[in-house]
Amino acid sequence: MKKTMLGFLIALSYLGNAVAQQNEGIVGYDQKINMHRRLPDESMKAMVPEFRINKMQLAFRGGESLYKAVAVNDANEEATDAGGNTVRMVIRVPLSEVYRNFDQKKNVELRELAGQKFLIQDELRQIPWKLTGESKKINGYDCMQATYANPERKQSFVAWFADAIPVPSGPAGYGGLPGLILELDMNEGEMIYTAANLTFKKLEDGDLKVPSGGKKVTETEFNKIRDDYMKEAGGIGGVRIFRN
Question: Where does the signal peptide begin and end (predicted)?
Fold first, then answer.
């Protein structure tokens, strides 16, 4: 009887450690952007690669997470326009760090726009996800599908989350589901985040550092600044084209 009870306690201890290990670590995402979806005419599409992939990472521990780029580098590419001119394109990945604390309903983002840094501090809002009942495997994990539509900003999202990883986080600050988001599709392929690698480990002190610096604004204020800038830039913020 004592041996049976001891075995039961050991099993419980092992299960507890396994769960603890499953809610802390780092996941690397591939952010695939359809560049052509953001360009206004066919002549510009001919000069810009259709897709761009950025490497991003999410450090998570329970209800706390920090999402940022693995490396922020400018991409320089050359093409030839219809007139035979050489065109040099500078595709810039703006600085972006997204901190979430779901337990404290805390949201802090450091964003860069037109060379200026903004610190967005606001209460964490719950996304009204809808579970569809659909499922598929991603990186060996059984994932369930959840959808969300924002008619005001004309955005739609399809998320695939793994409830075996009990953290409410995901890429680019999206989350609030009963499991880690391993894939997120925005606007039917305009931008897709896919988990490329996942490591469960104890995080270092600086892995979940709250972003700081920049002009302090609310999310609503930043969205207006961004929308006004995108209108002036013709909807192609982050891409500069030079003709030689």
Answer: 1-20
The CA distances from residue 59 to 41, 104, 168, 174, in Å, are 38, 17, 12, 14
| DSSP β-bridge partners for residue 202 | none
Q: What's the whole-model pTM score? A: 0.79
Task: Return all residues near 200 (Cβ < 8 A) that are at least 6 apart.
Answer: 21, 22, 24, 25
On whether the CB atoms of residues 26 and 201 are closer than 8 A, the answer is yes
Cα distance between residue 94 and residue 116, in whole Å: 10
Residue 192: which of 208, 203, 179, 181 has the closest Cα? Answer: 181
204: helix, coil or strand? coil
Between CA 20 and CA 26 the distance in angstroms is 14
pLDDT one-digit tens code per residue, 124-160 = 989 999 999 999 999 999 999 999 998 888 899 999 9
CA 127 → CA 28, 104, 138, 158, distances in Å?
Answer: 23, 16, 22, 12
State the 10-residue block means of pLDDT for the chain, 244 residues long.
38 40 90 79 70 91 94 54 56 80 94 90 92 96 96 91 96 94 95 96 92 91 86 58 43
Q: Tally the C-alpha atoms within 13 A of residue 237's C-alpha that lie toward its C-beta.
A: 14
Q: Name the fold adopted by 24-243.
A: outer membrane lipoprotein receptor (LolB), chain A (2.50.20)
